[in-house]
Design goal:
alpha/beta, Rossmann fold, six-stranded parallel β-sheet, single chain, 6 helices
């Protein structure tokens, strides 16, 4: 695998998803992004924006993350952000994400963020279904619904994309991440 074929996708680390149950992962992600970029790697951030009449509002009765400050990227990540806005779970929910991945030639999709059981899971499953190689970075992901829900998301993700695709930061190739500081 060449370094240029990989991208780090940081999913929805936004004020509205950073809660007591997920706050611990924000500095972990900030460090991961810093190291990834220092090694010359590409990083894509997603930002979920809900809207009136969305399936989330209509079917789940969830009316959060419609405007600032809830939709804003967590302040710890602001120096790094290059954001793709989305209205559904996955980076690949519309043609923007698919086109960017195709244009850049990324084949290995390393995914972390919030929430493991929904937007992170859906992004790695979509990458799998697009014949890319997804990697869920488990220790750089969390759920705002708590540890049990995060673990459930990891379990379901294993069933979708394979147990070997669930990794930790220490499993990321040194060429992509450099040595720990």
């Amino acid at each position: 695998m060449s370094e240029n074929s990989a991208v780090l996708v940081v999913v929805d680390v936004q004020n509205g998803f950073v809660r007591e149950e997920s706050r611990h992962v924000v500095p972990v992600i900030a460090d991961l992004v810093s190291r990834w970029q220092a090694a010359g790697g590409d990083v894509v951030f997603t930002r979920y924006i809900n809207y009136q009449g969305s399936p989330f509002e209509r079917l789940i009765k969830w009316r959060e993350l419609m405007d600032s400050p809830q939709i804003d990227i967590a302040p710890e990540l602001l120096p790094y952000t290059a954001v793709i806005d989305k209205k559904m779970y996955s980076l690949f929910a519309d043609d923007k994400g698919k086109a960017l991945v195709s244009e850049r030639g990324w084949r290995d999709i390393y995914v972390c963020g919030i929430a493991t059981e929904s937007c992170v899971l859906k992004t790695v499953v979509d990458a799998f279904e697009l014949d890319l190689t997804p990697w869920l970075v488990e220790d750089a992901s969390a759920s705002h619904a708590g540890k049990a829900v995060h673990e459930a998301g990891v379990l379901v993700t294993q069933r979708f994309i394979g147990e070997g695709q669930i990794i930790t930061i220490k499993d990321i190739p040194t060429a992509l991440l450099g040595a720990p500081e």
